[in-house]
Request: fold
Amino acid sequence: MLILTTSRGLDELLRDEVTRICPNLQPRLKPGQVIVEAELADAYRLCLWSRLANRVIWVLTQGPADNAQQLYDTVSSIEWQQHFDAKQTFMINFSGTNRALKNSQFAAQRVKDGIVDHFIGLGNARPDVDKLNPDVIIQARLWRDTVTLGIDLSGGSLHQRGYRSETGEAPLKEHVASAILYRSGWLEAQSKPMLDPMCGSGTIAIEAALISTNRAPGLTRKRWGFTQWQQHNQRLWESILSHAKDSICDPKGPIVANDNQSSLIAIAKKNADAAGVFNAIKFQRQDALSLVPEGLDEGFMVSNPPYGERLSDMATLVPFFNQWGIALKQNFANWRISLLSSQRDLLRQLKLRAKNEYALMNGNLECKLANYVMDTANLEVRDSSTTSEFANRLKKNIKQLQRFLKKANTNAYRIYDADLPDYNVAIDVYADWLVVQEYAPPKNIPAEKARRRLNDIIIQLPSITGFDPQKIAVKVRSQQKGSAQYQKVAEQSSRIVVEESGAKFYINPTDYLDCGLFLDHRVTRQMFAEQAQQKHVLNLFAYTGSVSVHCALRGARSITTVDLSKTYLDWAKDNFKLNGLTGAYSFIQADCVKWLADNNKQFDLMFIDPPSFSNSKRMEGTWDVQRDHVALLADAVRNLTENGVIYFSNNLRSFKLDQVAVEALGLSVENISGETLPEDFKRNPKIHQCWRLTKCS
Reply:
């Protein structure tokens, strides 16, 4: 008996393929596998010819495994010396658990014990386990109280054909590429063109060429699991191999591999050459949006277009798919199009109706294969401006901000802040970048609806604002706790410079949730810095040091910048260098609360803008601004000169300053929240609260 395994969603296709390869077999279907009663010749043919199977397992026995002892006894019942000898190495792949065998590593150990003890019982030496390059691979598959034991004839997943030396960023597995070709309907019409407009490393085109030339996919494999197996018949194998080589023919129709990156085309050519199908494929370099099938009235487009792993990828992908859908309608009438994506929302941007869809896995990614027929209904260009309400509001905001921008002396500002409940994002301008922060939606809003709204926003932003889609960063904004506020959300190392009232600041629009400058404190920074001349200044919870820079430019006598994060302190130092600032400036990495409690230096001016909450491992204890603000201000007063001033701010909406307790510390209290609210944040007056606290004489 043979078991052929495959990825979820491909088992029915595999069953049909087994019947094509070996018409004499009657395969049975189980989730993720096909089972057949077969001879050795059938097993060889399936190993060599299957384009969809991952493994071919020659079953030795099925027996009870309700507990460890039963498993051991079932293993011991096999005459292992008939399959390999004691001088050979072996490896065990164990899958499955039950109520008694909950740990697959332990179960694999019991299988190994049964095999080794069998050889020792025959008076042989103890065979060795080799996990890297074993002579024989033993598959043990547990289902409830039954274990199936067999020899892995494939010797590694069959999707690894052996022709791919290099891949692109998101490689498509070879057997999945074959599966989408099967699902596309192209196999029944191979004389018609097959085009992959975004071929990447060329996997789909190569698999199509292997099919079209009747070339067995296993011909390029260097290793098999049966070559060291005692039951292996080399003469039979060579006969089947020779017949496969003799079966190769000329391609039945044109196959085109296109990509807009020359480096990927080079990889695809190299892989195609290794697969023996270089001459069966036409390679070309062109942007998919301008691709026209010249001289080809109809054909099959089969592709695995980019679908991105990060939310920020959507900023470029959503507009691209929207434009690509229009291009497909204009240039590919009568074609059949099959697209694989893990992001169904991206496929929706094409504005096409799928004839049918299939769920399948590409590695660990759950994907959807959508088949489209470019008939009259799908050639209709549908209006994509479905969110005119958002577009109108954003245009209105930008127009209203023009007068403010003429006198604001900055190129970093907010143009939208959840003005409309259904479009729950904040949009900030940083020089020539747009940063879109999606607020985490309430639990009563369906996630799919929220995603669609975000996609609608991203589609419209380039046309409304004139910004390059490549310079739109998208992030999800939720409450940040502890060390999470310091963690990266991407790794693109984008850094630009923005200006604010004569100061310059480095901004990273892509890699962090916060870009390096809190825009809602623009006015607060100016008010504070105006008092800094010849003063000793403390900037506590300093972030990237923007307040410190403004104070230095206004002639502060000394500035102490304190923050828990080394990353942000280094950023602050870079901001000082950017502004050509040198002098009595100190940068201290420390737990701000503990540092202030231990400090003895006196300051004339303090800027304190703590987080709402923190439980960072680098802190002693936790921080809660509502609970701890009086104690913090008590330490601040102790380090404040007579008539010294503290600007105290935070963005916890529910925060209430304990004014009685604060005044008892010897501070006069002035709420300046309204005065510190910039024009571009007046739509959201609760963005922060701010007080000027002055030490009484």
Remarks:
- The CA atoms of residues 270 and 319 lie 32 Å apart.
- Confidence is low (pLDDT under 50) at residues 479-486.
